[in-house]
Amino acid sequence: MAAAMDWLPWSLLLFSLTCDTRAFYVPGVAPINFHQNDPVEIKAVKLTSSRTQLPYEYYSLPFCQPSKITYKAENLGEVLRGDRIVNTPFQVLMNSEKKCEVLCSQTNKPVTLTVEQSRLVAERITEDYYVHLIADNLPVATRLELYSNRDGDDKKKEKDVQFEHGYRLGFTDVNKIYLHNHLSFILYYHREDLEEDQEHTYRVVRFEVIPQSIRLEDIKADEKSSCTLPEGTNSSPQEIDPTKENQLYFTYSVHWEESDIKWASRWDTYLTMSDVQIHWFSIINSVVVVFFLSGILSMIIIRTLRKDIANYNKEDDIEDTMEESGWKLVHGDVFRPPQYPMILSSLLGSGIQLFCMILIVIFVAMLGMLSPSSRGALMTTACFLFMFMGVFGGFSAGRLYRTLKGHRWKKGAFCTATLYPGVVFGICFVLNCFIWGKHSSGAVPFPTMVALLCMWFGISLPLVYLGYYFGFRKQPYDNPVRTNQIPRQIPEQRWYMNRFVGILMAGILPFGAMFIELFFIFSAIWENQFYYLFGFLFLVFIILVVSCSQISIVMVYFQLCAEDYRWWWRNFLVSGGSAFYVLVYAIFYFVNKLDIVEFIPSLLYFGYTALMVLSFWLLTGTIGFYAAYMFVRKIYAAVKID
User: How confident is the model at residue 27 (pLDDT cuts 50, 70, 90)?
Assistant: First the structure.
């Protein structure tokens, strides 16, 4: 979650990376070659809905089950995402057609759903749940054909083919609820070129489904579990009445087609669901705006500073210098330690930890090593990196704490290791209790929670202590001027120097540079979309770093010119002002884009949004603070102090 800017050589390099990222695969992710009639296993991942934000495992509904249910061993990221990958009874053979097959048929008898099961299925359908299956690690997709030329003749209409993830569990029509009980699987294979006298091998390159609702009376099943579907549109859909028992067949068919798509490009279908052009417009717009404003601001400040420093360094006109008002007059107080230096240094240490983690994750993902094909890899990598970056967070916090005349380094290290992670864990634990109450697969299991606690106290905390110890022992930052014993009186400030006004002014530029990319990130999180444009995200992250740094320098300069030397906390808060706009945008997105009406989904949305806003404030506040600190040290080192 971030945004920022870069120079021309980087832009050219990243342009090539963003163009090629879809076809890039990590060494070691090897394709699976199938021979004719080899079994292709269909697995279920979960059920999801953007209306409830509560994932459920596949067999939480009364689907047909295989003789033995086997769950896949999952990584940390998959568990946190709510994935529960499990085998299904679908029998699919490579390049072998099936016209119609009945699932869980006992001597030609239909499946009977109890009243309770019928009510649960009906509830899930009305909540717009999607079913997610995978074949050879490829997620199933439903083809949507949209016509772009609406005004022209039917013959001139152009089809715009799009895909949505998974398939709808069912649909409602005139207050009646219908279940998709027949699945038409369409799998595409790529035939590999081989030498003579070798058997052909195939690779799965696309997995589509056409869900249908066909009532019991229209499906003719025989004793061999084969069935016959009605021709054309003569059939009626399978209604689910939540007030009584329902009888139905679960059926499926399999169709294979040859494709020219190679295995390395097979994810393109899923990753080109959004228009890439808008990302380029966003990047170009952000780069132009930020460079233009940054250039103007830099020019004004540099020219003003040169003039200030020249005036302050004149020794022949001492009286005029004494009458000057401005930032030089607070030189004896500008490096006076603020209130609560331990908390400030702890928050900045966590900000450094976040910055290092996000930078590495985005860069590695940009190289294609955390593609969606590596299920859960992004979240797993982020969790472990945050733990291991504790040594850098501890080092920076320890050195800053010593610079601020702190002495209790052990307590400071514990505060750094537990303050931000403790807030995150506390909020997640409370939300997890509500998810547990809903029996959702999104609830983190107790063993996983214990494992996360062990990682926190067994990896992150010792590393923070280690970094803090060396940071505290290192020479503190060299401040160019001495601090007076008696604090200077601060004059009355103008209205525009108010802290909240500063947050509004400082936050608009970084947020404006990244809000389009924020829309795609929100869509990926809350609407079950794939996000993979990490090349763009890296550019936006650089833009964010540059804009936060520059706006922070401008704000601290104005504050010091107003003879207010209490800049430490104020600059940290103001530099994170774009987090306020992220919060406002999240509320706008909730009201206008999502169809969430229940209490628990709303609580989950705003709970996780609070974590995002807090993390974003820490990140941008830390970037702005260190930029302002370097700026303040630089300008006071340039003037002659008596």
Answer: very low
Q: Give, in order, the Cα–Cα distances in Å from 326 to each of 331, 480, 564, 565, 620.
A: 10, 18, 10, 11, 27
Phi, psi of 440 (to 5 degrees): -85, 150
Checking if the pLDDT of 194 tops 70, the result is no
Q: Strand, helix or coil at 171?
A: strand
Cβ contact 526:604 at 8 Å: no
pTM of the full structure = 0.84
Beta bridge partners of residue 203, listed in sequence order: 190
Alpha helices (H) in 438-562, listed in sequence order: 446-455, 461-473, 499-526, 534-561
| Residue 407 neighbours by CB under 8 Å, 6+ apart | none
Cα separation, 211 vs 170, whole angstroms: 9
Mean pLDDT for 507-527 is: 84
Q: Which of 287, 293, 291 is nearest to 554 (CA)?
A: 293
Q: Residue 196's pLDDT band (boundaries 50, 70, 90)? A: low
Closest by CA position to 399, among listed 345, 343, 357: 345
- pLDDT of amino acid 500: 82
Query: 86: helix, coil or strand?
Result: strand
Mean pLDDT across the stretch 261-280?
73
103-124 exposure pattern, b = at least 16 Cβ within 10 A, e = fewer: bbbeeeebbebeeebbbbbbeb
98-103/250-258 β-pairing: antiparallel
Identity (one letter) of the amino acid at 569? Answer: W
How far CA 377 is from CA of 370, 380, 381, in Å, comes to: 6, 5, 6
Q: How far apart are CA 641 and CA 480, in angstroms?
A: 9
At position 529, the amino acid (one-letter code) is Q
What six digits make up the tokens of 330? 């607070």
Centre a 10 Å sphere on the Cβ of residue 230 and count the other Cβ atoms it contains. Answer: 14
Could you give the CA distance from residue 113 to residue 179 in angstroms, rounded to a whole number?
12
